[in-house]
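Pasting as-is:
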Amino acid sequence: MGKAFACFSIALHNFKKWAVNPRLYILLLMEVLYLHSRLSPVGELCARTGYKVTPYLLPFLLDEGSAVMMLFLGVVLLFCDAPFIEDEQPYIMLRSGRRIWFIGQMLYIVMASVLYFIVLYFISVLVLLPHIEWSAEWGKLLSTFSQTSAAGQNGISIPFARVITARFDPIPAVLRCVVNGSLVATVLGMLMFFVNLNISRTAGGICGTALVLWNMVTYKTAYWFVNVSPVSWVNLSRVDYDGSSIYPSLTYILLALLALFAALSAASWVTLRRRNIDVLKSV
């Protein structure tokens, strides 16, 4: 119990530093402005027609390559300072031991990833709040967008894939996006942790950005590349549910993400055990 509390305290300490980190305010502003720019045409349509929209646009946003790129570049910005060895961290490590400190950092990455996608969802709701209709169904507007070309005709560039409304109820769809997105963000964070620990923060940022941009390549080349593009796995319409497509199955996605997380965590721990720890400047 004491060790679990110590791990949680180390993770919580990283969260406390958010309040004085300007990079986090820049990240929040960037995502608010981006989501507002993408969703404001929906709000304008609602204002013109008097229709309301249900708060389930996140699955449709994550169905588009450019939106996935922008939101996951935010993840890169969030974790670019991994392995978070700043100021008092070496002293915390000495007091807790490297193993406890490392588990605390992994816990922070997991918790920050989940929080990031929860915040993205609430931002997508808040920017449309005057026009939100609370319902457990997709609602008339989103159903119409997914079955017709009405969205494009009204200047809305979000792709409303019919497969999403056909296969999912809205709340499970949103939950799946948050869970999948959090898992992918966790793997991305651990990748940057490992690379930064072994090379430099610049290298970690480059690797993280490359993994995010690789998702865009899958839209322009062979669809099979989705199988080796973790960032693509947040897209609900690019998952094979019945064995009839070349896309990865949900089981494949979950096992692959867990395997990547385990491998990166083990490799990072091996490195951390063997090297001296230096204080790094805040990013």
